[in-house]
Amino acid sequence: MLRVRPAKKIAGTVRVPGDKSISHRAVMFGALAEGVTTIEGFLPGADCLSTISCFRRMGIEIEQQGDKVTVQGKGWYGLQEPMQHLDVGNSGTTIRLMSGILATQPFHTVMEGDESIAKRPMRRVIGPLRQMGAKIDGRKDGEFTPLSIRGGKLQSMAYQSPVASAQVKSAILLAGLQAEGVTSVTEPHLSRDHTERMMQAFGVSVVRDGLTVSVEGGQKLTGRAISVPGDISSAAFLIAAVMVVPGSSLLIENVGINPSRTGIIDVVKAMGGSLELQNERIVNEEPVADLLVTHSQLHGIEISGDIIPRLIDEIPVIAVMATQAIGQTVIRDAEELKVKETDRIATVVSQLSKFGGRVTPTDDGMIIEGQTALTGAVIDSMGDHRIGMAMAIAGLAATGETGIENEEAINVSFPGFEELLKNISQ
Ligand SMILES: O=C(O)C1=C[C@@H](OP(=O)(O)O)[C@@H](O)[C@H](O)C1
Ligand SMILES: C=C(OP(=O)(O)O)C(=O)O
């Protein structure tokens, strides 16, 4: 059990582990590229290690030591048919992006993962890939794992996605790279665009027109050096820690500030929090900065619409911050929370309530009442890394001790979380 004590103050200068979305893509693109790709700042969390192990099973040589990775790319068709099932662990990004890649390969694969993956919807990716000509099956007509993919020659398509999902968009664009003609994806709202940026970094031409992004088939990826910035989704827990513990201040260095990910910064500022970007720069097509965060009394706001995909993974910890804000915080248009590692509307409500948090679930979000005094509790991550970490932050602001059960889930995206939190807590 992870134990958290109330903090008097959060202070220091820190770095968070590498961006999860960018780390997955760097390994995948490196494997499919011609030549060597070196990655520094890689996230050695369980999800990205699942991506590495899937590519190793397909004959790609990958060396990984901590945050340094070398991928010996063999070109798009250099992958070999795996003799066993590919295990994606807990990682939705791995299974959905890989579906797009495997749909183009002239062999058969089966992918499966843990209990949480088995409940997550796959037809959002399988449906369009089938329309492009891939033969894919799974439980409930391809909605659930295990997924069996027999890839081959694909037709290009213009896909109107009903959801703003980077995983859906990325799977189709990856498949489109081997389809004849131009493949495009149009989203209802902009989702994170790391795939588009990294395709360009690997030498692929990508065209964006508003909410539509397109690629022409037949383009090659060329291996290169990639430097992964710190994950803003991990930094979000530390930003929240500063905002819920009076007198706190923290400098978080080297954080990715891609505009499709910075909803958390906009929300903290709109709630009245002090957050300053310093030393802004561009690294491998991705904007990066140091974040100076200073405690401020927050007030409740409404969070809805276009901003939701820009902060979807941060909503559990935003809910924790909102308990310490003056007034009500209302989160709408976030039904996607229901299909993450857990149903994050239900798990935020059930776990935060154990501290005495006042949170009401709604069909597409939640309503959080502030300012509420929290009392330390024993909570359960429910196997969801973001729930475990969000509740640890609640523990910093609570009276008495908090215990987090099933804390090992945190390793999915933030190895070293417990130690880092201890180092900055006084
Ligand atoms: O493409 C990615 O790297 C991710 C996309 C998002 O999921 P959706 O595509 O389902 O919105 C996000 O929640 C996930 O943590 C990572
Ligand atoms: C939803 C998440 O990841 P994935 O979809 O890759 O499992 C997450 O990291 O919060």
UniProtKB/TrEMBL annotation:
Pathway: Metabolic intermediate biosynthesis; chorismate biosynthesis; chorismate from D-erythrose 4-phosphate and phosphoenolpyruvate: step 6/7. The keyword rRNA processing does not apply. One of its GO terms (molecular function) is 3-phosphoshikimate 1-carboxyvinyltransferase activity. It holds the Pfam family EPSP_synthase. The keyword Signal does not apply. SUPFAM superfamilies: EPT/RTPC-like (SSF55205). Keywords: Amino-acid biosynthesis, Aromatic amino acid biosynthesis, Cytoplasm, Transferase. 3-phosphoshikimate binds at K20, S21, R25, S165, Q167, D313, K340. GO terms for cellular component: cytoplasm. Phosphoenolpyruvate binds at K20, G92, R120, Q167, R344, R386. The active site is at D313 (proton acceptor). Its EC number is 2.5.1.19. PROSITE patterns: EPSP_SYNTHASE_1 (PS00104), EPSP_SYNTHASE_2 (PS00885). Residues 5-420 form the Enolpyruvate transferase domain. GO terms for biological process: amino acid biosynthetic process; aromatic amino acid family biosynthetic process; chorismate biosynthetic process. It catalyses: 3-phosphoshikimate + phosphoenolpyruvate = 5-O-(1-carboxyvinyl)-3-phosphoshikimate + phosphate. It is an enzyme of class 2 (transferase). It is found in: Cytoplasm. InterPro entries: Enolpyruvate_Tfrase_dom (IPR001986), Enolpyruvate_Tfrase_sf (IPR036968), EPSP_synthase (IPR006264), EPSP_synthase_CS (IPR023193), RNA3'P_cycl/enolpyr_Trfase_a/b (IPR013792). Catalyzes the transfer of the enolpyruvyl moiety of phosphoenolpyruvate (PEP) to the 5-hydroxyl of shikimate-3-phosphate (S3P) to produce enolpyruvyl shikimate-3-phosphate and inorganic phosphate. HAMAP family: EPSP_synth. Monomer. Belongs to the EPSP synthase family. This is 3-phosphoshikimate 1-carboxyvinyltransferase. It comes from Brevibacillus parabrevis.
